[in-house]
What we know:
Largest sheet: none
Number of helices: 2
Pfam families: DUF1289
Order of helices and strands: HH
Organism: Neptunicella marina
Protein name: DUF1289 domain-containing protein
Structural class: mainly alpha
Helix content: 25-40%
Radius of gyration: 20 Å
Oligomer: single chain
Shape: elongated
Number of strands: 0
Region (Disordered): 59-81
Amino acid sequence: xxQIEIFEIQSPCIGVCQSGPKGNCLGCFRTREERLYWIQxxxxxKRKIIKACAMRKKRAQAKxxxxxxxxxxxxxxxFWD
Length: 81
């Protein structure tokens, strides 16, 4: 049985609209196909896409966080050297 939505599921677009190296939007993390066909998709598919986008965003943030962390902590210089 399909659930009836009272309100339309809004696009997760935040207006960045730039594609990353894998073709996903850097703002909402949707694929090209997901952006192209968003209006035509049924609400249950839109919900799945929004969940997938949240997972993609988490992965991207975790990846950028690990690449930003220094491998060695900076060494404090001695005052007497």
